[in-house]
Specification:
mainly alpha; 2 helices; 0% strand
Length: 86
């Protein structure tokens, strides 16, 4: 049996968030926010304690990546909230 590339194994990417967010979706999004915030904080804390500049830079970059993911999720949620209020 041949393995297909990861992107073709039933993982469809949505171009934009759905019109309706179910309770299950909402709970998962809340989990994703928590995971990204925790990862960002851990990366920042580890970078502060690191003496090797290359590792410190890599940890700072990982923290920024998680922060960007966190902000993107918030943006989607705020857009959804604004649509519901109109």
């Amino acid at each position: 049996m041949q393995q297909q590339p990861q992107s073709q194994q039933g993982q469809n990417i949505m171009p934009q968030p759905p019109e309706v967010v179910t309770t299950k979706d909402h709970l998962y999004i809340c989990d994703m926010l928590s995971w990204n915030l925790m990862a960002m904080k851990k990366a920042h804390q580890s970078a502060q304690q690191c003496s090797d500049q290359d590792i410190k830079n890599a940890l700072d970059e990982a923290g920024r990546m998680h922060y960007m993911h966190y902000q993107k999720l918030l943006t989607h949620l705020q857009g959804q909230n604004n649509q519901m209020q109109q």
